[in-house]
Design a protein that fits this description.
EC number: 4.1.1.15
Bound molecules: pyridoxal-5'-phosphate
Family: Belongs to the group II decarboxylase family.
Number of domains: 3
GO molecular function, one term: glutamate decarboxylase activity
Number of helices: 13
Structural class: alpha/beta
Cofactor: pyridoxal 5'-phosphate
Keywords: Decarboxylase, Lyase, Pyridoxal phosphate
Distance between the termini: 55 Å
Radius of gyration: 26 Å
Shape: globular
Oligomer: single chain
CATH architecture of the largest domain: 3-Layer(aba) Sandwich
Amino acid sequence: MAVHSKDDIRPNLFDDIYASSTLPVSMPKYRIPDEENDPQQVFQIIHDELLLDGNSRQNLATFCQTWVEPHVHDLMNECIGKNMIDKDEYPQSAELEARCVHMLADLWNSPVSADTVGCSTTGSSEAAMLGGMAMKWNWRAKREAEGKPTDRPNLVTGPVQVCWHKFARYWDIELREIPMEEGRLLMTDEEVLKRCDENTIGVVPTLGVTFTCQYEPVAEIAAALDDLQARTGLDIPIHVDGASGGFLAPFCDPELVWDFRLPRVRSINASGHKFGLAPLGVGWIIWRETQDLPKDLVFDVNYLGGNMPTFALNFSRPGGEVACQYYNFLRLGKDGYRKIHDACYNVAAHLATEISALGPFEIIYDGKGGIPGLCWQLKSSSDVTWNLFDFADQLRTRGWQVPAYTLPSNMEKLAIQRILVRHGVSRDLADLLIEDMKAALDKLSKHPVSVSLTAKEATGHHH
Ligand SMILES: *Cc1c(COP(=O)(O)O)cnc(C)c1O
């Protein structure tokens, strides 16, 4: 190696960052470099690369939080070193989690809210796994006690989020998912009963179906299952997937009976990071009563100086999200949650009116009786020469992410487009979107995309 003077090897501290020693050359992408690099420069490279992600605030596809209060940022920072699993080392974080569990049990009207069990998870997906496992274990114990076979469990759902497909596959359960039909996009009591038998571990209605945002009729399903039990003796529990609705209905629609007020509802999951308004990475599962969670699913972990009961798929997990969930509960109270969500419902209704007035769209859901959001299809009578996927592409050129997708079986032919209105999607932002929609329609009419397709054929067309 050539001998350098000290000045040669010392980086020039006054270099502009983009003219510095590292940045003019390409950074390795798939191998860890051998040597260290300047933190400022590496930070800038990654910061710049992240620019290519969509702007999360303009992502109208996600249910998850993309805006949080400054205090939430501070708490997240404060908790970055805390591990949720180390309940002995961080007893106060564990205490905040326990308080949240009881607050939620109370919010969801558990008859014994001070005595229920539940826990935080990484999201509704993990919570669904835990809820599903409890149903499977309880069903199996009952069957074994009766001396009956336990090899063919099934689960009855409406059109569910993919986490329930995972649950069924991972735990070897037959998923009896009620397909959508023309004019019926949700589960009904009749369709549920057709699929229930002695091997049904439970029924899962969704409060806020992912595809269309609508609530499934939990009370009707519960009544039908009560009736089934009276006729046949089959006692089939309900788990409500309240990923979104669990944090909406109690504040904005308190008369809707969907929760532990129905004795048949044995467990509920919800996503703290959706309408719970916590930052990404927290969900909740609560059982109605302690005995609804089978004892042998709970591990007593003797670890790092403490003996702690845990029920979770993960071990280590960040603690900040739970602290922030607790912050939201205290900071907002029920009134605050209601105001924030009601503002979202109002924006959704406004968008539905405006989008309907644009002409080619037929609103399927306008934000009433479900999640604050809306979805629409192309009118079958409209003779446009483009489809919803083309329209979504046009909006993307202005940064808006308004997904178009086809529905699950049996409605795969129907393409729809959906907007989720969440904390931070203001009336003004909505009006800017409408202006861009008008411009997009104008452009599509001048530069037709799918000229060979009629609108009807085009609705089922994928890019
Ligand atoms: C989002 C969602 C899930 C998955 O929740 P995560 O918190 O993203 O893991 C499950 N079910 C429904 C109905 C959802 O909307």
